[in-house]
Amino acid sequence: NALRHAYYVQWDFPQVGWAIE
Known about the structure:
Largest sheet: none
Strand content: under 5%
Distance between the termini: 8 Å
Number of strands: 0
Shape: flat
């Protein structure tokens, strides 16, 4: 989800968000 990606990007790092997703 784009929202989830943006959420993780703001939270930590975009790479971390994409890895989790």
